[in-house]
Amino acid sequence: MTTIYLARHGESDWNAANRFQGHSDRPLTDLGREQARALADLVAGENVEAIYASPLSRALETARIVAARTGLAVVEDEGLREVDTGSWSGLSRAEVQERYPEGFERWTSGGAGWEDGESYEEMAERVLAAVNRIAAAHPGGRVLLVSHGGPIRAIQAAAEGMAINEYRRLRPVEPNARLTAVTFENGMILPA
Fold this sequence. Notes:
Elements: E1 2-8, H1 13-16, H2 30-44, E2 50-53, H3 57-70, E3 74-76, H4 93-99, H5 101-108, H6 120-137, E4 142-147, H7 149-160, H8 164-170, E5 179-185, E6 188-191
Helix pairs in contact: 2-3, 4-5, 6-7, 7-8
């Protein structure tokens, strides 16, 4: 059984402004760096053998702060990127609601919102393939994945045996720099 620790990146400037980020490469705020240091303290006690991160700078910087505390290198993995929010990227919820009222209503109900970019199902497929690949490289080990709210929800949904959109309707997005875990055994992602 492989233990997979999940951590959302620290607060970014667009988290602070409550804007959709998607694939936009936004930096951490000072609070985000503080959150990453607190995360590093938590991870230091878990004996992880590897750290993987989304290549987007908010996740990568968070992972590097953790890695500095653990002495591990960070492996960038494209599969851990956030969902591509297309034309919603950079917009606040109020701006999306004004410009794309039908899409916003669908999105708040757990369905597809933006009509370009990437669907949650496409993102989940990409993320779960990355998790399978990473877990296979560390059988019986303990690894940390530093990613984003969407990918973490996809992983947690899989562990609960739920579709990503159903999980989104029932569970809020993970707070910044929160540490959770799932396990991987016999090709399946399971609750920790």
